[in-house]
Design goal:
This protein is mainly α. The protein is built from 4 helices and no strands. The protein has a domain of 66 residues. The protein is 87% helix and 0% strand. The chain is flat. The termini are far apart.
């Protein structure tokens, strides 16, 4: 039987990924593919399988990196990456105007 802390980790991970994926490119591509397909169930299976594989790769990479880099370093690198991506998007948005 899973411990409450393990269930909390599963729940918070599910909620984080679920909210992050709502309305993103993956969901829009899935909507487009299922709209042009005669088998939305097969589109769901393909899309879900791809998301599971991408999540597995991320979890394994994160687990491996955590053995080499302290948690604070990983958090700092992730924050810096998001800031750089955000700054680049803002800069491109201003350049397009």
């Amino acid at each position: 039987m899973p411990m409450p802390s393990e269930l909390g980790l599963v729940g918070s991970t599910f909620l984080t990924v679920f909210l992050a994926e709502l309305g993103d490119k993956t969901q829009l591509a899935t909507v487009a593919l299922s709209g042009t397909s005669r088998s939305p169930l097969l589109v769901f299976i393909g899309s879900a399988s791809a998301l599971v594989l991408a999540s597995l790769i991320g979890a394994l990479a994160g687990g491996s990196l955590s053995r080499l880099v302290p948690t604070e370093g990983l958090q700092l690198a992730a924050a810096a990456g998001f800031l750089l991506i955000g700054a680049r998007l803002v800069w491109w948005g201003e350049a397009a105007d």
